[in-house]
Design a protein that fits this description.
Layout lengths: L3 E7 L23 H5 L6 E8 L6 E5 L7 H19 L3 H17 L1 H14 L3 H14 L8 E6 L2 E9 L11 E11 L5 E12 L4 E7 L7 E2 L4 E10 L3 E12 L7 E12 L9
Antiparallel strand pairs: 1-2, 1-10, 3-8, 4-5, 5-6, 6-10, 7-8, 7-9, 7-11, 11-12
Helix pairs in contact: 2-3, 4-5
Length: 282
């Protein structure tokens, strides 16, 4: 598993520009999809740097555990969505309509999606006894589903927020290729200046196969965060399964005193899921 990186800076007068990632063909703004750029609101964004975390000075190792029972259903769901898109683009609207109806039926009957919907409805209607029942059923059949597509953690005043999203246009479910993007905001809420030195990611797919990735800085930089400032960037991660998770840490160091010890800032676990969720921490 490799990770692709994109850095964004907000600029009211900027024009969106993108570079190509070496060895990966063209990677333009449209590849991330409109849902990704809507997160930036009306500020306007400019892609000012691209890098490959997988080959850009990082190193990795992997291990595996037991497979996930939710894997095949998620793959079928992703494959149906891709087939509907292909049918619509080729103007085979009858086929697109048929697949659309199949998707609706799938969403109504697929256990995880059905229980998520019922749980949300029960909470909204204050039927908490039913909500507890649906929650327990979800925990039994898909414990991973409680991990959201976002996370938020603070270590020594350094806050790390993450939000992931599935990029359907860059994925090929029939070939076991799923593409996820994630956006990270690092905020220095402490009273001391700090610099990000290194990154460490643990990427786990739905089969339980994990990969540790280490590297210098992020997207080729080692940003300095003054008190009250933040640093944002976006990155992407190809995965061989329709679901997975990421977590890790940033090694940082206070730079206001000579000889300060480095410290690790936690990146709390978040989900990579084609089903997504309603979480939005930005």
């Amino acid at each position: 598993m490799h990770s692709l990186s994109l850095k964004f800076r907000t600029d009211l007068n900027s024009v969106v520009a993108a570079r190509c990632l070496q060895g990966r063909g063209k990677f333009g703004v449209s590849d991330l999809g409109s849902v990704w750029f809507r997160d930036f609101g009306g500020k306007g964004c400019r892609i000012v740097a691209c890098a490959s975390n997988g080959n850009g000075g990082g190193k990795s190792s992997s291990s595996s555990t037991k497979p996930s029972s939710f894997l095949s259903r998620s793959q079928n769901y992703a494959l149906l969505k891709q087939k509907m898109e292909v049918a619509a683009k080729s103007e085979d609207y009858e086929e697109a309509a048929r697949i659309r109806d199949s998707l609706k039926l799938f969403e109504e009957e697929e256990p995880v999606l059905r229980l998520r919907r019922l749980l949300k409805e029960a909470i909204a209607e204050e039927r908490f006894e039913d909500a507890a029942k649906y929650r327990d059923e979800l925990r039994e059949i898909a414990p991973h589903s409680f991990l959201k597509c976002s996370s938020d953690a603070t270590t020594l005043g350094i806050r790390v927020q993450v939000r992931s999203v599935y990029i359907e246009g860059r994925s090929q479910p029939s070939k076991g290729q799923y593409f996820f993007a994630y956006r990270i905001r690092i905020s220095n809420n402490s009273e001391r200046s700090a610099q990000l030195l290194r990154r460490h990611w643990i990427i786990t797919d739905a089969n339980g196969k994990s990969e540790n990735v280490w590297g210098i800085g992020v997207i080729g930089e080692q940003p300095v965060l003054l008190p009250g400032t933040s640093f944002e960037y976006s990155s992407a991660c190809p995965l061989s399964t329709a679901n997975g998770r990421m977590e890790g840490d940033f090694e940082m160091k206070h730079i206001d005193r000579v000889g300060s010890q480095s410290f690790n800032v936690a990146i709390a676990p978040f989900s990579l899921s084609i089903l997504g969720d309603d979480s939005d921490i930005f």
